[in-house]
Amino acid sequence: MSRRRVPASQGEPRCTVTVCRGCCCGTDKIPGVDHAAQLATLKSELSALARVRAVNCLDSCAQANVIVVQPSSAGRAAGGRPVWLGLVNDPDATSDIADWVAAGGPGLADPPAVLDLYEFAPSRRVRQGVED
Q1: Burial of 4 from C-beta contacts in 10 A (0-12 / 13-18 / 19+)
Q2: Is residue 93 over pLDDT 50?
Q3: How far apart are CA 106 and CA 115, in angstroms?
């Protein structure tokens, strides 16, 4: 995956929220979820605070819908690491993620306790493809 630098005019590099929209996530394979609204909510609530990007597939289909929250440089310096969240198929969970990122995200703000239920550890191969 390529990395894009945040232009200096945008200040401190921000959290990155990666939303899977591949073979399972964001499709009719996960019924009863407004996938477009989920992505739109994250983009509208976080556009000024974080980089929100949709990617084709994070190769964690058993956990669809998957969202990865990567810390800002300040969050990483404070010990924050990327957090993988799976089965994010509820608008309340999407709001909880947005609120956490708005508060600073990994390393700078504690996530809402309910997000512990969504957190999972992907394989090292999958994790390295996104976090590098």
Answers
A1: exposed
A2: yes
A3: 12
Spatial CA neighbour of 25 closest among 40, 36, 41, 9: 36
- Give the angle subtended at the CA of 110 by the CAs of 129 and 32, to the nearest 5°: 65
93 to 8, 43, 118: CA distances (angstroms): 32, 15, 9
As a whole number of angstroms, the longest Cα–Cα distance in the chain is 41
Which tens digits make up the pLDDT trace of 9-51? 345 679 999 999 988 999 999 999 999 999 999 999 999 999 9
Alpha-carbon 111 to chain mean position = 12
Residue at 87: amino acid letter: L
